[in-house]
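hey can u check if this looks right to u? its 356 residues, i copy pasted from the old doc so theres a chance i mangled smth
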Amino acid sequence: MKQQLPADATGLTPEWLSNALSARHPGVRVAAVEVLDATERTNHHLRLGLAYDVRAGAPETLFCKLPPRDPEHRARIGAAGMGSREVHFYRAVAPTISMRVPVCEFAEAGPDGAFLMLLEDLTARGCAISDGSWAVPGRLARAAIGELAELHVRWEAPERLAEVASWATSRRGKAPDFVLSTLRHVIDHCGDRLSDAYLEIARLYIDHHDAIEAAWERGPQTLIHGDAHIGNLFVDGDRVGFLDWGMAKIGTPMRDLGFFLTMGLESEDRRREERSLVRHYLAAREALGGRSIDFDEAWQAYRIEAAYGVIASFLSLVPPYDTESRRMFTTNFRARAMAALDDLDSVAAVRALLGR
């Protein structure tokens, strides 16, 4: 019988943690638990310190991921199924791939959007997680997009997609009124902080969001990370790791490639290397036996995918997402989006898509 999932730190008792860790560490007995750090971002994050009566190889610290505590935010995350998707990823997909992801000690989803994950404490391992002031250096990009290609090719066969379809299928619906109204607010009240290209993509999205969303989903279908920007990446030595799999879904591999290059790499490195990196990704796919994608087709999709940076970043301009503690990260995040829009002339690419 499954344990009831704790809703916050008070439920993370030594007894509960002993049971949760026992599948990977038989015989483990937790003696005490201490909350070393707590943050509220998209979800509720805890860094835990553990003492043991019997350690059985279990880690001294853990990263615990829970739904947000705010009821409205919790309901929104629950409706999106992000926690459940990430649990499914760690249970069914992570053990089958070679890309660097956090080690998962426990992952479970419950009713009404409840979930709990106990993950590797990356900071204790010496991994670097960006505060927004830096992004992935270009020298690490080739290996990282090669691993993305491996994920994409591994799951693009229909029989493999069928294995994850029950939780990874994302049905595109009408853009929520909340998104469109907030985007209008950003255009009207935050224009002095945004580039002309950013504002034009926002206007085009409001007027043509169905066509733009359809273009963002066009291409071969496979399992993708779905949100591979600098906030969801880490650097472990000379290797890029991928975390926060709550937006994993069946979609186009160009979303991962485009978002990683435009919103994960340092902009100067992207400008210098992006054409060769797109070619490298396509060659890696072919070497792995994946479906061939023409470079011109991929490049056009890449230019259009860059426009997604607007939708990924505009909420950072309004409460409750615009916070002092996150301002450096979100300012640099939008700056990368604006740089990519200008460098790739994404406005022209989107207008051509719309026949304008």
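The CA atoms of residues 131 and 329 lie 6 Å apart.
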